[in-house]
What does this fold into?
Amino acid sequence: MALETDLPVHFMSQATAAAPDWDAVYAEQLPRVYNFFRYRLRDEALAEDLTATTFEKAWRARARYRRDLAGFATWLLAIARNVAVDHIRARREHAPLEEAEHVSTPGTPEEDNTRLSDAERLRALLARLPERDRELIALKYGSGATNRAIAKLTGLSESNVGTIVHRVVQELRRDW
Amino acid sequence: MSDDFLNVLRRDPPAEFARRLKSRLHALDAPAAEHRAPARAWRWLATAASVVALAFAFTLPAVRSAAEAFLDYFRVVNFAGVAFDPQRMAQLWSSASIDLPTLIGGQVDVNELRLPPPPVAYSTLDEAGVAAGLRLRTPAWVPPGFALTSIEVTGAHGLSVTGNTEKLHTVLDALGITDVSVPAALDGQVVTIEIPPVTRLVYDDGSHQISLTQARSPVITFPAGVDLASLAEIGLRLLGLERAEAYRFAQSIDWRSTLLVPVPATAATFHQVEIQSGTGLVIETGGQAREGLGGRGGSLVLWSNGDTVYALGGPGRATDTLQMAQSVQ
It folds into this structure.
């Protein structure tokens, strides 16, 4: 699920012709942004709200996005990242409230029980991570971004991203 | 153990949520087509360089057969800033007993005016480079979250003007500036300004934009022997500088290679920097200046490398903009 390799399909065929197929881009990118927020924050309803905020910002600005369309997914994640940071900052400035958990998972009851349990365990583990580590995990496993894309987004080197993610995954695996 | 456990949080977005959001986005389409007006401060920063070039050119009184003169050239190698007081300048210009814009408009003889064509968007740097006749350079470092979102090239443009010292005296008299000397030998001379294609790369994080402009140096051609320092002194006086200050400044600059950028003293600060083996100029609105601009600040770095001039500006602090400028390669 490399952001910079599978996204451009909708763009590359049209980059020099008509406008991109924004509906197709939307369908492709929505799960990535949505899951980024699911991993980044604990509140599921909040994940929807911030996903909506991210797409609204990108949608308004998309007329300016005329080239380097292969990097659109990275750009979209940059917006999502800023939205998350703004939210976390605002939350800290106000009285912190315990984030509610609203997990809804379609499937059979047995599958749901197992999945719900695993999801809760992972949420709890992620909640204990430092902000930076949690963001890297959210980018890597929530949005499916490559280490290169994460490096662009965060300003870290690609090798540094790989090292940090490897270490955090080992810690999570140990505690799982 | 594999990393599969890290995927257990992944879900498809609820269908109803996806549908509602998509509808909401389509409802935003009208605003999406609008272009944001640049911030007041940023608009000033972005146009400062071109304004000073044109202002300088219009102060050149020239009237002599260019064909009989040896031509001299101005190319941008260095940048220098000069602080001026916008209020003082406004007072100066409002003190004129006549309608100065009309007067100036009638005094400048424009032989040829080629307006800049609308910018053309390109999908790749290579295509834009070919259109601009320039090997485009890009920053190796951009602030986290920013990505290249557009490439535009504005075609070549320029103008050719003539004037005469008598008319320039009329303007100066109207402003009450009677203690400058206008070189009489400049009569009848022609000045041309050629601005090669200008490329603009825009980096965007969804909320803010950083713009990297690059072009071969504008070339101002004028007859040899023109006393540029005297003409520059006139230009500085038109900005509202005191006589002694204008004289001192005019004598200290190499006017054949230095582009002077007037900076409103109440709105921005500036300083020179060494950048890519040349002298660049950093302009920043911030602190009190930022407040004076309604909280909208920004920074601009101007520099040249070889025969190419660069302007990099955005809403961030000068340190970030300078770091990005230093990485352009």
Summary: The longest helix of chain B spans residues 40-58. The mean pLDDT of chain B is 75.
